[in-house]
Specification:
- By secondary structure, the chain is an alpha/beta fold.
- It has one domain: 2-enoyl-CoA Hydratase, Chain A, domain 1, CATH 3.90.226.10.
- Helices cover 52% and strands 15% of the residues.
- The chain has 11 helices and 8 strands.
- The strands form 2 sheets. A 6-stranded mixed β-sheet has the order 1-2-3-4-6-8, sandwiched between helices.
- Strand 1 and strand 2 form a beta hairpin.
- Helix 5 crosses helix 6.
- The radius of gyration is 17 Å and the shape is globular.
- 42% of the residues are buried.
- The model has no long low-confidence stretch (mean pLDDT 94).
């Protein structure tokens, strides 16, 4: 199993569990996460969700070893599966809190941003990272990130891949709470428990109202990002960059 689910009262905790691969998003892990989100969506006993990563990091992004084996059609299928994570979170009907320690990069950064709230370690390293290997952002990041940090800061983070730590993330609006690494999971659970203690109907309707403000723009961003990601993956420079990255990694 690449995903571990535990329960704390009416809070479901979904832990990405591929520590040997820095919790990289493989097709198998994506499938398990999407399936679990679909189960939670019809489970009235769950009122809030925490998404976390097994130590030492939250998520290093897509599994580049898998991506390196894919042709264009295979990558399109992978991207369809990956996009389903965001769809699952949006259709969940209850808030999602990200508990982020270590690092959140590329797809891990996008996953963090797709959650309603983010609790991060003070020393966490958070960075977009897609452009390192010639890929463009996905997961609706080109809409979500400007909402969180402002248009100029979003462009800086997207274009440069500059990393920010947890304290900086809170100061710029990228995260809501920064705590010592050892306290990240507990703080995320505390916040989730507070949310889950409210009558569920009010929380559900509030989330729907917030999401409705950007529904059309978000769908448009997803579609545009999907097309851009397919184009960038097919480019020879991207393939070369992925191969070079994997050669640098043990």
């Amino acid at each position: 199993m690449n995903l571990h689910r535990t329960t704390a009262g009416t809070v479901a905790v979904l832990e990405l569990h591929r520590p040997e691969a820095r919790n990289a998003l493989s097709s198998a892990l994506i499938g398990e996460l999407v399936a679990e989100l679909e189960r939670i969506a019809v489970d009235d006993d769950v009122r809030c969700v925490v998404i976390a990563g097994a130590d030492p990091v939250f998520c290093a992004g897509a599994d580049l070893k898998e991506l390196a084996t894919l042709d264009d059609a295979g990558f399109a299928a992978f991207l369809e599966r990956y996009t389903a994570i965001g769809t699952g979170i949006r259709r969940l009907g209850r808030p999602v809190v990200a508990a982020v320690q270590g690092a959140a990069v590329a797809g891990g950064f996008e996953l963090m941003c797709q959650c309603d709230l983010r609790v991060v370690a003070e020393d966490a390293q958070l960075r977009v990272g897609d452009l390192d290997i010639g890929l463009s952002p996905t997961g609706g990041l080109t809409r979500i990130l400007p909402d969180l940090v402002g248009a100029g800061r979003a462009r800086l983070l997207l274009y440069t891949g500059e990393a920010v730590d947890g304290r900086t993330a809170v100061s710029i609006g990228l995260a809501e709470r920064a705590v010592p690494a050892a306290a990240v999971r507990d703080e995320a659970l505390r916040i989730a428990g507070t949310i889950a203690a409210h009558p569920g109907i009010g929380v559900r309707r509030t989330r729907e109202l917030l999401d409705a403000q950007h529904a059309g723009a978000h769908d448009e961003a997803i579609a545009a990002e999907f097309a851009a990601e397919l184009e960038t993956f097919a480019h020879p420079e991207t393939r070369t960059a992925i191969d070079a990255f994997l050669r640098r990694r043990p």
